[in-house]
Amino acid sequence: MEVLRVEELAAVHLELAGESDSGRSATTLYTRPGARLRQTLIALDAGQTLGEHQSPGDASLMCLQGDVVLRAGDAEVELRAGDLVAVPPQRHDVHARTASVLLLSVALH
């Protein structure tokens, strides 16, 4: 079994996000052929937004570090370290108020 050091990966990807023109960095933590789950670590520099995009299906977003806002239509929710939310089934975006690290978990059908 492989143990991932998420805090270490978060630090690396926050640094990469800060150096990137896009202000973000991501890596897939878990998937495999035939898997029904994919988990992705996403780091966003302060002030960056993952532009509006379609929902990936059944998914959750957990804030590991920082402060982000998830917006879908007229609704929005603020997430801070330790908060978890189901990703809404409609188009949405994510805005980082501070340098942030997220864990996106997606059920693959």
From TrEMBL:
<feature type="domain" description="Cupin type-2">
    <location>
        <begin position="42"/>
        <end position="99"/>
    </location>
</feature>
<dbReference type="InterPro" id="IPR014710">
    <property type="entry name" value="RmlC-like_jellyroll"/>
</dbReference>
<dbReference type="InterPro" id="IPR013096">
    <property type="entry name" value="Cupin_2"/>
</dbReference>
<dbReference type="InterPro" id="IPR011051">
    <property type="entry name" value="RmlC_Cupin_sf"/>
</dbReference>
<protein>
    <submittedName>
        <fullName>Quercetin dioxygenase-like cupin family protein</fullName>
    </submittedName>
</protein>
<dbReference type="Pfam" id="PF07883">
    <property type="entry name" value="Cupin_2"/>
</dbReference>
